[in-house]
Amino acid sequence: MKMSSEWKTLEDVEKNIFECTACPLSETVINKVVRKGSDKPKVLFIGEAPGKNEDETGVPFCGRAGKILDELIDYAGLEDRDWAVINTIKCRPPKNRNPNKKELEACKPFLNRQIELLDPKAIILLGNTAEKAFCPDRKLEWGIPEEINERIVLKLYHPAALIYTRSRIESQNAYIDQNKHLFE
Ligand code: SF4
C-alpha cells in the first residue's frame, strides 16, 4: 500500500481501500463500504463500522439506522450537497462486533485522508467507536462541540442507538438545535 500522502484524490483513497488487506477483516468482507454523499461536504458524519446491510450492498447507512440518519440530516436542514458519511473502518467485523484497536489503527490512514480531502467545516462523530477512532486520547461530551486538529467536532448518538430508544431522539434534536451554526 502507498503512503496515504500519495493519495491525491478521493478516488485514489477509494482504490486503495478496495485493494487493502491490512487487517483480517479483508478475509470476511463481502463489500467494502467507502462513502456516501457530497465530495465537498460542509458536514462530515463518521459512523462506526459497516453492518450486515452495508456489507451486502457496499453503501453506508442503508438500513434502519440509515433512515434515522436521514431524519437527522433533514432535521438539521442539510441539503444533499452539504453532507457526507464515512465509517471508521471500511470492512464489516463478523457478527457486528465492535472493531478492535488493531483494526481501527490499520484503517486510520484511510479515515484521516478522507477527512483531509473532504475537508468539512464540521465533523460529527456518531457514537463512541467513532470517537475512539478519531480522537483516542480525548473524551467528548455528547452534544458539546470541541476543536480538535483545527476542526470543529461534535459527538452525537449513533443512529442505531436510537432505533430502540426513540426518546433519545429528543436529546439528539436538542443537540442539533444548540449547534445550528455548524449545519448552516
Ligand atoms: S478494515 Fe480497513 S484496514 Fe482492514 S482490510 Fe478493510 S480497508 Fe483494510
Structural description of this entry:
With 184 residues, this protein is an alpha/beta fold. It has a single domain (8-183), classed as 3-Layer(aba) Sandwich (Uracil-DNA Glycosylase, subunit E), CATH 3.40.470.10. The chain has six helices and six strands. The chain has a six-stranded mixed β-sheet. A hairpin with a 2-residue loop joins strand 5 and strand 6 (151-156). 39% of the residues are buried. The model has no long low-confidence stretch (mean pLDDT 95). It binds iron/sulfur cluster. Iron/sulfur cluster is lined by residues 17, 20-23, 25-26, 32, 89-91, 103, 106-107. Keywords: 4Fe-4S, DNA damage, DNA repair, Hydrolase, Iron, Iron-sulfur, Metal-binding. Belongs to the uracil-DNA glycosylase (UDG) superfamily. Type 4 (UDGa) family. It catalyses: Hydrolyzes single-stranded DNA or mismatched double-stranded DNA and polynucleotides, releasing free uracil. This is Type-4 uracil-DNA glycosylase.
